[in-house]
Write a structure and sequence with these properties.
alpha+beta
């Protein structure tokens, strides 16, 4: 007898061949995916490891670079060499005329005569030019006539005062009329003083119709012809004194100690030298430049004259031989004129010295430095007071 329940169970236990194949394929796919996943994870792990290794290498290289950057080459230093020398000061400037001036008329008028030309040498007091004097003469005559008229008015006022005072004394007129007469006399006298002043001014103006040279010199500018109408104070001519020249320069505070009034100065002009001397040394420093003004008198020879306004070099003699310390020009601290840098106990120190500069640019230090001091060569602009440094002495 067939049992329906058992039959169903038997049927359920029976697997169709297609179902079996489907399950087998799913297992294969799962295995493949797993293998690929593991492979991908392994690849990623390798790349991450390589990246970490590269990063470690970069960090090591950066640290090494920083370490090498902190290691600086030793700085070059030197010692000053004792020398005996004659100090001097080098200056430059322009040969200015000893005296120069602009010449003109104090009165206005028409220029009728020009007696000199540009380039002429003139003597002190020599007449240079003349104005038309006709108007000046008329002004003098007018002023004289005005003075005479006021003098007549004063005489009339004084006569009137005498008559008035006589009448007042006899009680013929009131005292007030005498007071009025006295005031008229005072007014006339004041007018006479004014007229006489005008007359003197007219005479002076007439006498100033010509101009003369205030000193002997060379005319460097003059009108080429007459006929010009000039105004009072108008510059008409320029006159320069070339008998000697004035050389203006300045000295530093340290250089001023070497120079005195009367000190000899050698001025180099082209291929020759001229000896002058200091005539002025202002004992005061300019607040802006920290330098003292200096003037040198330079003689001029008529046989072989110098050229005015030439740019020249001059050497001021220091007086006598002194002891000093010679150093190359490279010791100068950048941005300073007379400072250098010394190394003491492994640190930098700025030192201000008194020095002279030789023709080759080297320094000869007179004060502020000892021969035992270690001096830094070619100091850097960024060097600071107290910087710790390593150094090696120049051979």
């Amino acid at each position: 007898m067939n049992d329906p329940v058992n039959k169903d169970i038997a049927m359920s236990e029976t697997v169709h061949p297609l179902q079996t194949e489907s399950r087998t394929g799913a297992r294969v796919v799962g295995v493949v995916v797993g293998v690929l996943g593991l492979t991908l994870l392994g690849f990623i792990g390798v790349r991450v490891k390589e990246s970490l290794a590269k990063r470690d290498d970069l960090v090591k290289e950066r640290v090494a670079a920083q370490a090498s950057a902190t290691v600086k080459a030793p700085l070059a230093v030197t010692h000053a060499k004792p020398v005996t020398f004659r100090p001097h000061v080098e200056v430059t400037g322009t040969l200015q005329p000893w005296r120069s001036t602009d010449v003109g008329f104090e009165q206005s008028g028409r220029l009728v005569r020009v007696l000199v030309s540009t380039g002429d040498s003139v003597k002190d007091g020599q007449v240079l030019a003349v104005l038309d004097a006709s108007m000046a003469g008329a002004q003098v005559s007018q002023a004289e006539a005005q003075t005479k008229a006021v003098e007549a008015q004063l005489s009339l006022a004084e006569d009137n005062l005498k008559r008035t005072e006589s009448l007042v004394a006899t009680k013929s007129i009131a005292d007030a009329q005498a007071v009025q007469a006295r005031q008229q006399v005072a007014l006339a006298r004041a007018q006479l003083e004014g007229a006489r002043a005008t007359e003197r001014l007219a005479h002076t103006g007439a006498g100033q119709r010509s101009i003369t040279a205030p000193f002997a010199g060379l005319v460097t500018k003059a009108p080429t012809s007459a006929g010009t109408v000039v105004s009072p104070g108008m510059m008409l001519m320029h006159l320069e004194d070339h008998s000697r020249f004035r050389l203006s320069a300045t000295l530093s505070e340290e250089e001023s100690d070497l120079v005195k009034v009367g000190t000899e100065v050698t001025v180099k002009y082209h291929d020759r030298s001229v000896t002058g001397h200091v005539v002025t040394l202002v004992p005061s420093l300019d607040q802006a430049t920290r330098r003292a003004p200096l003037e040198v008198e330079v003689p001029n020879s008529a046989a072989d004259p110098l050229l005015a306004w030439s740019f020249v070099h001059a050497t001021i003699d220091g007086g006598k031989d002194v002891q000093g310390l010679r150093l190359p020009a490279t010791v100068r601290r950048p941005g300073a004129q007379n400072e250098l840098v010394v190394v003491k106990d492994g640190k930098l120190h700025f030192v201000r010295v008194q020095k002279s500069t030789e023709a080759d640019g080297s320094w000869v230090v007179r004060d502020g430095l000892a021969s035992s001091d270690v001096v830094l060569l070619a100091p850097a602009a960024e060097a600071k007071e107290g910087d710790v440094v390593d150094h090696t002495e120049e051979k």
